[in-house]
Amino acid sequence: MAADRRSFLKAMAAGILGSGVRIGAGMSAVSAWSGAQTNSILNQARPADRTMLKVVKVEPFILRLRRDSKQNLSGTSYMMCRVETEEGIVGWGEGTNFPRVATIATEIEMIKPLVIGQSAWDIEKIWHTIYRGRNAMHGSAVQSALGCIDIALWDIVGQKLNVPVYKLLGGKINDKIKIYTSYRWGTLPRTADAYRQRTKELVAEGAMAGKWDPFFDEPYTPGVRPEERLDFSRQATLKTIHEVAEMVRGVREGGPEFEICVEAHAKFNVASAVRIAKAIEPYNPMFYEEPVPPENVDAMIEVQRATSIPIAAGERLKSRLEAREYIERDAFRIFQPDVSRAGGVTEFRKMAAMAENHFIPVAPHNPNGPVCLAAHLHLSAAMSNFVILEEGSTDPALNRELFGNWHDSRAYFLPPESPGLGIKLTDAFVREHRVDAELS
User: Can you give the pLDDT at residue 136?
Assistant: First the structure.
């Protein structure tokens, strides 16, 4: 009977793999159903040696990418992570968060023992190892550190397989990544005429959409204008509401088909948020972002139910668990997760899939650095419910240096085609832009 069974398995394997494939023991032999060393159909897709892509280094770096008039590094501090394997493949991740990143760098140092020695193939395992290992003190810094490492692992696997990350995510469904411009109105008079003229200029430059915060520091933001009276009521004044309505009207008149994105940075109480929505509703904005703080889902639901404008939110929701109630209760109509804050590519794609079940489109929150931008481009390329990407503080000259090939446009970006994330941060670049944690 044993001989008959062996003959049957050989015949089956020969039919599937070809008659030239040897069956039996040995490094190159096929064990159709089991075996540590095998070239079966299934195991061709996984490493035979589990030490392949063994992680040997995890290094946090804080970079600043701009220089001031005195040529000192200035601007935003970007939290980057360099992960290296035993065979010398280097992946980069980003975990930038607001307002400081030093705590995230510390968190990466704390969790890197959970990663070193693991195989970069095992992204899901590593994700859950970190998540469960830091569960007792889980928060924004932990999730950003986790995302930083996770993005780097996807970069490594893409490089190893010689394919861009979007192919690991199911392939490209969006050839071009539509963007909305960020704060390109500059400092203008708060009038319809000024915003009408500038929007015409943006449309002439190719822009199809744009976002800005027309409220500035109202209601009062602690520490911004210390000479003014403290007011924590989250109440918008009628003066502000009228000004904002005029500004939005100007944008609409300057671009009849221009997608208007109004940012509120979670400043308002429910009553003010609804009054603002009613004031700008006639001009059909694409979305009204974070009108109220995210801690109370019922408050967001109340604003969304009171207006036809899609409410957009999600940058402060750090995981699918935090986003679940918002999605299931339809608290917003556009979801804005951030890959660097929400646990990396692994968690982001699960969050996007949850939103897809509720026919909620995704507009990734993208104000961060170039590695985060690269990750968002790959995710957006492979995402069926992608709608639009934030332009952020994109620097075309810097992107040409880091991506090698960069399509500069006011309307859309292109996903990288190089293996992995398609972005390279050289040792010289890191040395030039690195800053100490004390400054970040």
Answer: 73
